[in-house]
Prior knowledge:
Oligomer: single chain
Distance between the termini: 56 Å
Order of helices and strands: HHEHEHEHEHEHEEEEEHEHHEH
Strand order of the largest sheet: 2-1-12-11-8-5-4-3
Amino acid sequence: xxxxxxxxxxxxxxxxxxxxxxxxxxxxxxxxxxxxxxxxxxxxxxxxxxxxxxxxxxxxxxxxxxxxxxxxxxxxxxxxxxxxxxxxxxxxxxxxxxxxxxxxxxxxxxxxxxxxxxxxxxxxxxxxxxxxxxxxxxxxxxxxxxxxxxxxxxxxxxxxxxxxxxxxxxxxxxxxxxxxxxxxxxxxxxxxxxxxxxxxxxxxxxxxxxxxxxxxxxxxxxxxxxxxxxxxxxxxxxxxxxxxxxxxxxxxxxxxxxxxxxxxxxxxxxxxxxxxxxxxxxxxxxxxxxxxxxxxxxxxxxxxxxxxxxxxxxxxxxxxxxxxxxxxxxxxxxxxxxxxxx
Length: 342
């Protein structure tokens, strides 16, 4: 029993010194961070699209995807704020399966978390340097934020983590927008309590220190659908669902009420091809009601170079090895349609 020590992990400072952000890249991030802040505080009406692979499992196809996304961005950037998903941590319900680049920089080799965190920084820095995109990632482990806090512009807290105290308190000290998903069971009160906690000041143990935070006014909700006790998917992206979230916010004294709608996961029952339809319904609801226009700041879409998914080692360049994704041709079309519809 117990824990077998494999090797010591380098500190965040040591990792950052090995793979540093330059002043130019930090300036790019500062601009992107400010643009996102202006959207969440209501100063900008651009619509956020958080889009990309379910899991960033391989640097080269991810970069190819980002090159293509950057070309589209040039045509829609006055209306859309595109934030690529470079998700390097993959939650697993049973603990089995590929856990993301942080665990396995090569999905076909044994875990190596030291190599993983360096691979993550290298990929994110390439994204900023070569496409101008700072990205979104999921905070599967609160400790990981220390290794990426100078790189990420958006963070999501997953459905399995949103009720965890350490996640909530860690978010309260972060300086970027953080989306708190509804839990897998669908209880929106859990999601809202998580946002309340993230907005508040806290003192707690983090990174070997007693720390104090000021609260994160950019923490917000993400609707991702749910699964009932019989294992059936329950969507929560419809007009009535959005109005319910709006009404929940009205009873709270929180700054910057905001909601992002995840078009995949339980909202689509992982039928990836349904994502364009779901996004368009959200946009219609947003147009129909001015309160929802203010509340719904954006959508999340799982997308990659190829439609669907494959097993690890499947060999298809740019095809997801986790959840199925929307392929590039459909993705490009959808992005132009979103820009036209908002």
